[in-house]
Write a structure and sequence with these properties.
Layout lengths: L13 H8 L6 H11 L16 H12 L2 H10 L4 H4 L3 H6 L6 E2 L16 H18 L8 H22 L8 H8 L8 H11 L11 H4 L2 H23 L3 H5 L1 H20 L9 E6 L5 E6 L1 H8 L13 E5 L8 E5 L13 E3 L2 H13 L4 E5 L5 E2 L4 E2 L6 H5 L7 H7 L6 E11 L2 E8 L11 E5 H7 E7 L5 H4 L7 E3 L10
Parallel strand pairs: 4-6, 5-14, 9-12
Antiparallel strand pairs: 1-10, 2-3, 4-13, 5-6, 7-10, 7-13, 8-9, 10-11, 11-12
Helix pairs in contact: 8-12, 8-14, 10-15, 12-14
């Protein structure tokens, strides 16, 4: 049997209560209240929720909420400012200082700025690649061209898209996979293996040789145009690939070639023609002593220097790979994502799933070897862009809203609440009593963000919102290295690990 219940009754104020107690002839209003107290709505099963939003209940809740002076103060304060600013935890911000016990000798400068684009992965990786070049040429500061890799990535992603569209031609266009492929075929985002593929195939050039133009810094309009054309091309390729007529299928390769040529034309007109990967460029520069120098190299030759052994011969970029922490999946397991990449003949996306302790110990070993670390995280969560502090306590939600957030890391990934949306660089760590306390982070949002471009990440924030670190496999145990020999578990294209930073 179900349990019947009454809707909550709004309490009388004290004056009305006394009046009711002192009269023998209830007023019409009192009679309505008494009637309401004695009559119940139709019974519901105990486990069955109220099916509608009751205006009476909303009014009661509203009066209760506004009866608390703290809530009225919150409404006034939040009316003219972001709650993240109003509820900023000043003590947490002040305690998260830029003091570190272990710091790499060459962090690299200047602080870079990706502007209004999603190229963080290219900025994070080139901020790592520039370190051996700074040492090799005796530079005080240096910046690689992110636009150069950006250009080739657009071409490669278009080709990857065409190939996957042809592979999935027999699937219905409304299928989840095809819809995901059509969603953002030339996204600005990427992953470590994808940038490694680009550097190996096209090399690198200094920023002065191929600087950003407007469309590199403000990529949304370019991406819209490219995506519109790619979707148009996709329908033609799908039709040809599914056609029973040999003549149509014979046109498939030619049509794909023509479409890729059209995308190449658009990208070149929008970003400008880049240096040819196997033709020499000339770069003139001043070294740290102020002496003028000049080199003549191909982008491929120049890029090989970034992939050469680093300064102390302990870290090699050719051995770098991604450790990830995804508690949804089995630890000590090799993971990859279906139909996600850029260079068709390149290294597929490879993730080694480990516990956070293993990931952090590998990062510390990299820093001890003097090498910066590429990492992927969810920077939008509990991160203060002004102070550059990433700390779960940086915003006091309970103070303003009387709520806390209870999802764990696995649940946030599974529900879409969190994902690896941003890539940055770790250059230092502060260790107390043998344990990391906070980490120094180089961002790519310019000197106006954080502490002149630098952030502080608390160790607790790292546990909750960091998902990836790119390390030399010599800095992990043989047990972890052997994971690379496994056949990977293939995650679907729409999995959270398929979100590109």
């Amino acid at each position: 049997m179900g349990t019947s219940y009454s809707q909550p009754v709004r309490p009388l104020d004290e004056k009305s209560a006394r009046a009711k107690r002192n009269t023998t002839d209830p007023s019409p209003a009192d009679r309505r209240i008494e009637k309401h107290e004695t009559e119940s709505p139709p019974p519901y099963q105990a486990e069955e929720p109220e099916p509608t939003v009751s205006l009476r209940r909303l009014q009661d809740w509203n009066e209760t909420l506004l009866g608390d002076p703290k809530n009225r103060l919150a409404i006034s304060s939040l009316a003219s400012a972001s709650y993240t600013d109003v509820l900023a935890n000043r003590s947490a911000i002040q305690s998260d200082t830029q003091i570190f016990s272990l710091k790499i000798p060459i962090e690299g400068s200047p602080i870079t700025n990706q502007r209004s684009s999603g190229r963080c992965w290219l900025f994070a990786s080139t901020n790592i690649f520039r370190v051996p070049i700074i040492k090799a040429y005796g530079l005080s500061d240096f910046e690689l061209s992110q636009a150069y890799l950006f250009y080739w990535d657009k071409i490669e992603k278009a080709n990857w898209f065409f190939e996957t569209i042809i592979e999935t031609a027999d699937e219905d266009v409304s299928s989840r996979l095809v819809q995901k492929l059509l969603e953002d075929p030339v996204t600005d985002g990427g992953q470590w293996d994808m940038v490694a593929n680009l550097v190996k195939k096209y090399g690198l050039v200094p920023h002065d040789v191929y600087p950003d133009n407007f469309n590199a810094q403000n990529s949304s309009k370019m991406n819209w145009l490219l995506t519109a054309k790619l979707r148009e091309h996709a329908f033609v390729l799908r039709k040809l690939a599914r056609s029973p007529h040999p003549k149509d299928r014979a046109q498939l390769a030619e049509s794909k070639e023509n479409f890729l040529k059209e995308i190449h034309s658009l990208v070149t007109l929008l970003l400008g023609p880049p240096p040819n990967p196997d033709e020499p460029f000339v770069w003139q520069y001043n070294n740290a002593e102020g002496k003028a120098r000049e080199i003549r190299q191909t982008p491929l030759e120049f890029g090989r220097q970034a992939f050469s052994q680093s300064s102390n011969s302990k870290v090699s970029p050719t051995r770098l790979y991604s450790l990830v922490n995804d508690p949804r999946n089995e630890y000590h397991r090799l993971l990859t994502v279906d139909k996600l990449g850029n260079v068709k003949e390149g290294q597929p996306l490879t993730y080694v799933n480990v516990e956070m302790k293993i990931l952090k110990n590998a990062v510390i070993s990299m820093l001890k070897a003097g090498h910066p670390v590429f990492f992927g995280c969810d920077v939008g969560k509990f991160s203060d862009r002004v102070s550059g502090v990433m700390d779960p306590d940086v915003v006091d939600l309970s103070l303003g809203f009387n709520v806390t957030l209870g999802l764990n890391k696995a649940e946030r990934l599974a529900s879409g609440e969190s994902a690896m949306t941003h890539a940055m660089v770790i250059t230092a760590v502060h260790i107390e009593n043998g344990h990391p306390v906070r980490w120094r982070v180089e961002n790519s949002w310019g000197e106006g963000s954080g502490d002149k471009g630098w952030y502080v990440m608390t160790d607790r924030w790292m546990d909750e919102y960091t998902f990836q670190a790119v390390v030399d496999f010599n800095f992990v145990s043989k047990e972890v290295r052997d994971i690379l020999r496994q056949s990977p578990k293939v995650l679907p294209r729409w999995d959270p690990l398929g979100v590109l930073a």
